[in-house]
Design brief:
With 569 residues, the chain is of the alpha+beta class. It binds adenosine-5'-triphosphate (ATP) and magnesium ion (MG).
């Protein structure tokens, strides 16, 4: 490919609104252009990268036995009403009306549509198992679209859906997809981790996420130092403390804490460790106020809390609600002496505390030396409602947990019969009896992968692609392409030879100054670069530099093509 016939549009500075490095680099390298919030154009250079990702995903899905199809992006409301998700999916779903005032949505996901295909097409156990997939544009009206294509509203997903005669066969295919995903992310050249996950709005039983490891990742992952246990912190169990509650040694006392409304401030004022304080969080569910207790140095895990009986779903109480139902303003509330209508739920670690500090339910005061059973009733419910932290024992009993951050690029689910039962997708078994189909579903964030790869590979000059994702493998940088007939001849020859060998080569024939040319090629991250100049040619040499080499090295002109081909083999 000749740069003059392609389209490269790099920027010196990223637009100010881009916060994340990958977003800045994608804009600067001209891979994407913003159209509106969460809406991006894939420019020719970016599209080459996206297509490479798609290609590897497609090859591995095919090799794993899945069959490609393409479902409509626009979906009739009736299917979602049947599954019960039309109302529960929420504002993430872009609902639209056609000219006949009929309701549709722009598909945020495709369980309903594929289940409709399955119930029409699958008659007999003989047609099973089946795994259909597509690579397609989805729309989700995200609350906070950000970080460019990392969390866009319109994005490209590979979604697959499998159908089975039994749970056992679903488990087999789930494992098959798990392995295919591991191959895909390995082939893409990414550092990744598969972690146990919460099934979220998609539903079902078992689920794993695949995360590209990067400090900028939105998700926290807990993994064991001594086993292969790894889980999203949303899900990772915080095991109960081994030591049982110590006996009370202090008297309960009310102490003035004016202006100190956080556990941090109160602990500092009282010269007590943060782990001795209890944080009370007021939440509402169906007009009932619940008080959730976590240790001062711990954090509430909202995903875990939302699974408790009576709390599905919940929201944080407003200041007004807190004052009306507890009689005290937020910042000083605590479990001792709350009205009976307030249900107190304690994290396991809190339940094991004695002599703790908490709000006195009186503005400007806290209580110290508080003990369950003596100063207040035992909590109505004890549950795991906090985030696991580094140093916690691993839930599998092996080693302790460490934390790292990840970008979710894949998610697989055992849906079981959630959709097939609701939408009556059945088949006839060997005995001629009608049975409900077992289902799995498997997603990959194709466009997000491009951003995730850049989070993992970059330096001050720009992008460092994993080889399989690079938009071009080799760049030819001629010095004085228009001026020197010799340089032009050699550059053209090398270009044609590499291209004929099927290598994606970019000949930078724009006749830019060398500084500009090198800066562009480094910014867009071409892994291999050769520089051709008159001076070197006189000695029969050209210069080679990989994207990560500190300086160039000379290679013999007559060996150059062979050398470059072997680098790309
Ligand atoms: P997230 O937790 O990041 O919002 P999700 O769990 O809602 O994602 P899934 O329903 O599991 O997403 O979708 C499958 C994959 O699609 C995700 O693993 C992710 O890689 C990708 N994806 C989801 N939402 C977006 C988005 N807004 N922009 C880009 N990719 C996305
Ligand atoms: Mg997910």
């Amino acid at each position: 490919m000749r740069a003059s016939q392609f389209f490269i549009s790099t920027l010196k500075e990223a637009p100010a609104e881009a916060e994340l490095l990958s977003h800045k680099l994608m804009l600067r390298a001209g891979l994407i252009k913003k159209l509106g919030s969460g809406l991006y154009t894939w420019m020719p250079l970016g599209l080459r990268v996206l297509r490479r990702v798609e290609h590897i995903v497609r090859e591995e899905m095919n090799a794993a036995g899945a069959v490609e199809l393409l479902l409509p992006a626009v979906q009739p409301a009736e299917l979602w009403q049947e599954s019960g998700r039309w109302d529960v999916f929420g504002p993430q779903m872009l609902k639209i009306k056609d000219r006949h005032e009929r309701d549709f949505c722009f598909g945020p996901t495709h369980e309903e549509v594929i289940t409709d295909i399955a119930r029409r097409e699958i008659r007999s156990y003989r047609q099973l198992p089946l795994n259909f997939y597509q690579i397609q544009t989805k729309f989700r009206d995200e609350i906070r679209p950000r970080f460019g294509v990392m969390r866009a509203r319109e994005f490209v997903m590979k979604d697959a859906y499998s159908f089975h005669v039994s749970f056992q066969d679903l488990e087999r295919e789930y494992r098959n997809m798990y392995d295919a995903y591991a191959r895909i992310f390995t082939r893409l050249g990414l550092k990744f981790l598969a972690v146990a996950a919460d099934p979220g709005a998609i539903g079902g039983t078992g689920s794993h996420e695949f995360h590209v490891l990067a400090d900028a990742g939105e998700d926290a992952i807990a993994y064991s130092s001594a086993s292969d246990y790894a889980a999203n912190v949303e899900l990772a169990e915080a095991v109960a403390p081994v030591e049982s509650r110590a006996a009370a040694t202090k008297k309960m006392e009310k102490v003035p804490t004016p202006g100190k409304t956080t556990c941090e401030d109160v602990s500092a004022l009282l010269h007590l460790p943060l782990s001795q304080s209890v944080k009370a969080l007021a939440v509402m569910s169906e007009d009932r106020l619940f008080m959730l207790l976590v240790r001062g140095d711990h954090q509430l895990n909202e995903v875990k809390a939302a699974k408790l009986p009576g709390l599905d779903p919940f929201r944080f109480a407003t200041d007004k609600e807190i004052e009306a139902r507890i009689g005290c303003r937020p910042g000083y509330i605590g479990p001792a002496g709350v009205p009976a209508a307030v249900m107190v739920i304690a994290d396991r670690s809190v339940a094991a505390m004695s002599d703790f500090v908490c709000g006195a339910n009186e503005a400007g005061f806290h209580l110290t030396g508080v003990n369950f059973g003596r100063d207040l009733p035992e909590p109505a419910l004890i549950a795991d409602i906090r985030n696991a932290i580094a140093g916690d024992p691993s839930p599998d009993g092996k080693g302790t947990l460490e934390l790292c951050r990840g970008i979710e690029v894949g998610h697989i689910f055992q849906l079981r019969t959630k959709y097939s039962a609701a939408m009556k997708a059945t088949f006839l078994d060997e005995g001629g009896k009608s049975q409900v189909l077992e289902m799995g579903c498997y997603g990959i964030g194709v466009s997000r992968i491009v951003a995730a790869a850049i989070e993992q590979g970059n330096d001050e000059k720009g992008i460092i692609w994993p080889l399989p994702m690079a938009p071009f493998r080799i760049a030819i940088a001629p010095i004085g392409y228009r001026k020197s007939a010799e340089v032009r001849k050699i550059a053209d020859q090398l270009h044609d030879e590499l291209q004929a060998a099927g290598i994606d080569v970019l000949l930078d024939d724009r006749d830019e100054r060398p500084g500009v040319m090198f800066a562009d090629l480094e910014l867009i991250g071409v892994p291999h670069r050769v520089t051709i100049g008159e001076r070197g040619l006189k000695e029969g040499k050209i210069e080679y530099q990989s994207r990560t080499d500190a300086s160039p090295s000379a290679i013999e002109l007559d060996k150059a093509a062979g050398h470059l081909k072997s680098l790309c083999a």
